[in-house]
Amino acid sequence: RLDDELAYVKKVMLLKIDVECYELLALSGAKKLLQRTEAVYFEKCDSSYSRYGYAFKDIFDFFEDAGFCIYKIGEHLELEKVKRNYISLSGYENLLAVRETHIAAVRGRLR
Fold first, then answer.
1. Are 33 and 2 in contact (CB under 8 A)?
2. Which letter does DSSP use for residue 90 in this model?
3. What values do phi and psi take at 32, rounded to 5?
């Protein structure tokens, strides 16, 4: 579990998760770490999530419950908030979950 492995970390500006569609399972073991995290970069893979018994809406709800909003990153690094029913045109897409209290700082870092 990430909570156990990274218990010593006091603050996380960006957590990148690349777990081949096990995002919800990995995040479930990182609830305490996420309390100290500003943003999470992860891959949305609609077709693969269903193989593991969940959908994007479950990840959306998890992040929302933890105080994050999810954004897609535009080609000019602008952030566009996505909704619970968001569907990627390609099926795979990198997204950014940002704690609402840190959105201005994250936008500033992207410039």
1. yes
2. S
3. -70, -40
How far is Cα 93 from Cα 80, in angstroms, rounded to an integer?
13
The three-state secondary structure class of 34 is helix
What element of type H or E holds 83? none
- Give residue-wise pLDDT tens across range 25-52: 899 999 999 999 999 999 998 778 888 8
Please state, in angstroms and rounded to a whole number, the distance separating the CA atoms of residues 16 and 37.
Answer: 11
The predicted pLDDT at position 88 comes to 85
For the stretch 58-98, pLDDT in tens is 999 999 999 999 999 988 899 999 999 998 887 789 999 99
- Residue count of the chain, please give it: 111
CA–CA distance, 38 with 18 (Å, rounded to integer): 17
How does strand 79-81 pair with strand 68-73? antiparallel
